[in-house]
Write a structure and sequence with these properties.
452 residues, alpha+beta, eight-stranded mixed beta sheet, five-stranded mixed beta barrel
């Protein structure tokens, strides 16, 4: 192909429009005082006043206030409609009465797109005043509300903080498959799907794969979706959620895993304090203070709740939701901590890969982390011995041939290891004080909801 023909087919554009200057971010405006700038975003709200109007522009990183006046603008105010996507030309003018110390005087506009009909729900108030069902039904629109999108800026920052911490601790990020031949957790809460001429399942967790990767990288983590076919219809359950998983090798005790999570959460809170001030203020969020998170054995916790709250123990294998709430209240009153590690859960309640306590085979070297009345993390030490893992499979009547590739990990030696899984949506919801985990989920999937 000759050079001329090649140039006709493949071109690179360096122009942003006729005589256009680079577009300005909201965070940069104060440094352009007295200058004319170009901005893009959506018209969030128009407040008509006597002789002028305030035009709120929703940008990528903020909602900023512009001033429309016939004195400066070359276009009629009626050209603007709420939720229209626009490019604006404005002058950054000093204004002592403005909260930012300046105002944006609109000069020109380019309309990029406009709504084809009136929005079915009001989104430009301080919060969307509607039911949770409506909030979720109109999610593509309601997420544009200032408070709604602040939730997910915070959630994104949580993930950034976790990654920053784990990378600093020499963990390697992995991406495991979400279609599997067997379920990691067992039981009936697993989604089946046809896979060509075989039967496959949506991953309940990355458990098998992160254990395999301990033998490769020693320390690994993943932030990814997991799927549970649980027919729960509660404020705490989802059928698809985001799990923050890590696994670490060459441990001497499962307490090392708890210590790592303690430090990870402390790093996360400090990161949010530094990077999400505006969002936290908007949502009136009080971040917890994290020092050394206390811990208590499961059996002792059950007895404490029964004694302090005068409740009969009806289930010695797990907590009821009310017991989680009561335990957190007792711990907060006793220690000031909003977190509590509950350790040594009964073996009968934990998966087949959980290591039993050498001093008491009825309990495991495992833990849950409770935060403000709700379990947000499950973790513990795993069986690393081939002989012990095979024996536990057989005791539970499981078919070892189904776990051939997983057992390869144990057969060819893997170091002592353990890890955890933290529910991102649950953690976000508890952090922000929401009663329902769906409020902290972009597009929830539960037994009733498959759209949007």
């Amino acid at each position: 192909m000759n050079t001329t023909k090649f140039t006709e087919l493949f071109t690179v554009s360096t122009n942003t429009g006729a005589n256009a200057s680079p577009e300005t971010e909201a965070c940069e405006l104060a440094s352009h005082m007295g200058e004319t700038v170009r901005l893009h975003g959506s018209i969030y709200k128009i407040r008509r006043m006597s002789g002028f109007a305030f035009v709120l522009l929703r940008m990528r990183d903020a909602i900023i206030q512009c001033v429309y006046s016939n004195e400066y603008a070359s276009f009629p105010l009626d050209a603007l409609t709420e939720e229209a996507c626009v490019r604006l030309v404005a002058e950054v003018a000093a204004e002592e009465r403005a909260r930012a110390g300046y105002e944006l005087r609109l000069k020109d506009v380019q309309i990029l797109s406009t709504p084809s009909e009136i929005l079915p729900i009001v989104i430009n108030q301080k919060q969307v005043n509607t039911s949770l069902e409506n909030l979720l039904d109109y999610r593509p629109i309601t997420l544009r509300n200032e408070k709604e999108r602040a939730i997910f800026r915070i959630q994104a920052a949580i993930c950034t903080a976790f990654r920053e911490f784990l990378n600093g601790e020499h963990f390697t990020e992995i991406h495991s498959p979400k279609i599997a031949a067997i379920g990691a957790e067992g039981g009936a809460n697993i989604f089946k799907l046809p896979y060509f001429d075989k039967e496959a399942y949506l991953a309940q967790s990355p458990q098998f794969y992160k254990q395999m990767m301990v033998g490769v990288f020693e320390r690994v983590y993943e932030i990814a979706p997991v799927f549970r076919a649980e027919k729960h219809d509660t404020s705490r359950h989802l059928n698809e959620y985001t799990s923050v998983d890590f696994e670490m090798g060459y441990i001497e005790s499962f307490e090392e895993i708890m210590a790592m999570e303690n430090r990870m959460l402390r790093h996360c809170i400090l990161f949010l304090e530094e990077n999400c001030t505006a969002e936290l203020s908007l949502l009136n969020c009080a971040l917890p203070e994290i020092r050394e998170i206390p811990q208590i054995p499961f059996a002792a916790a059950k007895e404490w709740i029964a004694s302090a709250c005068r409740r009969e123990i009806t289930d010695m294998l797990d907590f009821e939701p009310e017991e989680e709430r009561l335990l957190c209240e007792l711990v907060a009153k006793e220690t000031g901590s909003e977190f509590i590690f509950v350790t040594h859960y009964p073996s009968a309640k934990r998966p087949f890969y959980a290591m039993d306590n050498p001093q008491n085979s009825e309990e495991t070297l495992s833990f849950d982390l409770l935060f403000r009345g709700l379990e947000i993390t499950t973790g513990g030490q795993r069986i690393h011995s081939y002989k012990e893992q095979l024996a536990k499979l057989r005791v539970r009547g499981m078919h070892e041939e189904l776990f051939e590739s997983y057992l390869m990990l144990h057969k060819y030696a893997v170091p002592p290891h353990g890890g955890l899984g933290l529910g991102l949506e649950r953690f976000t919801a508890q952090l922000l004080g929401f009663e329902n985990v769906r409020s902290a989920t972009l597009f929830p999937r539960d037994i009733h909801r498959l759209m949007p």
